């Protein structure tokens, strides 16, 4: 694969980021310099622009980035979203009513009337949710809103429904969702809270596979090389010319990958890119 016709796309948490949710100095300096020499690099994450903006800024990325597992693609040059996939209003309303009726505490990610990102929830019930909210709040994230009944949400602008809970309970819901053709869903373990699970529900096109193909075509490139560690990376792997799982990835993710590289805490993504792109980058 040639450097100028290949898109390199990395997941963030436990793939490009270290355990403390930061970029290493080596990763930052290398990618900034490599991009100036023609490396087409970006990221695809379950995070929002608010919580991944430090990566966008630190790497000085010029290419669009994939957010919310593919529900949004944001272009830093235009400072605008160039793609968004929202849940169908009727499907969202039906699922929300069912979840609340079953005693679960859904988290709703959506845009408000001013098109600002908001995260609505009624109460905090699990340790993983507490950790997640606190980690965002300490970095100045102002998306969070406590709601009584979710009635303030514009149902046509819902990005995702997220639930936390025991694996068995969420697995049961996941199986029920398979009959709904307008949505996509991912059940995965919380990477920062072992033993806690997340079930994320969104529009059928809101997955990393759809988004990475859309971005590749938007940029006029031919190949995709992707890096990941968790179940939400599997759709991206399926659409990639070559897919690499870090060695700390979940076993199904490693099995689905074209190859397995080093540990995320050891700059595995950068090590791989250096190895395969060294000659092309050095000659520029």
From TrEMBL:
A GO molecular function held by the record: magnesium ion binding
Leader sequence segment: none
Entry GO CC: cytosol
Alphabetized Pfam families for the sequence: Hydrolase_3
InterPro entries recorded: HAD-like_sf, HAD-SF_hydro_IIB, HAD_sf
SUPFAM superfamilies given in the database record: HAD-like
Name of the protein this chain belongs to: Cof-type HAD-IIB family hydrolase
């Amino acid at each position: 694969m040639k450097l100028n016709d290949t898109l390199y796309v990395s997941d963030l948490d436990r793939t490009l980021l270290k355990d403390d949710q930061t970029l290493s100095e080596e990763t930052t300096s290398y990618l900034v310099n490599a991009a100036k020499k023609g490396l087409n690099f970006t990221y695809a994450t379950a995070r929002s622009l608010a919580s991944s903006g430090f990566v966008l800024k630190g790497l000085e990325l010029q290419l669009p980035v994939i957010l919310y597992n593919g529900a949004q693609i944001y272009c830093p040059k235009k400072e605008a979203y160039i793609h968004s996939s929202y849940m169908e209003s009727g499907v969202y309303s039906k699922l929300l009513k069912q979840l609340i009726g079953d005693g679960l505490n859904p988290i709703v990610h959506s845009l408000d009337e001013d098109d600002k990102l908001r995260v609505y929830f009624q109460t905090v019930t699990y340790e993983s949710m507490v950790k997640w909210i606190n980690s965002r709040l300490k970095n100045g994230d102002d998306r969070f809103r406590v709601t009584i009944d979710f009635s303030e949400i514009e149902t046509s602008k819902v990005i995702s429904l997220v639930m936390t809970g025991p694996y068995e309970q969420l697995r049961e819901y996941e199986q029920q969702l398979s009959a709904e053709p307008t949505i996509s869903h991912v059940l995965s373990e919380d990477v920062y809270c072992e033993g806690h699970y997340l079930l994320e529900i969104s529009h059928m096109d809101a997955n990393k596979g759809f988004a990475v193909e859309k971005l590749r075509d938007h940029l006029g490139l031919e190949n995709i090389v992707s890096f990941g560690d968790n179940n939400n990376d599997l759709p991206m792997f399926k659409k990639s010319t070559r897919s690499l799982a870090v060695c700390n990835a979940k076993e199904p993710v490693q099995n689905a990958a074209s190859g397995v590289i080093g540990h995320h805490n050891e700059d595995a993504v950068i090590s791989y890119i250096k190895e395969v792109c060294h000659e092309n980058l050095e000659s520029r």
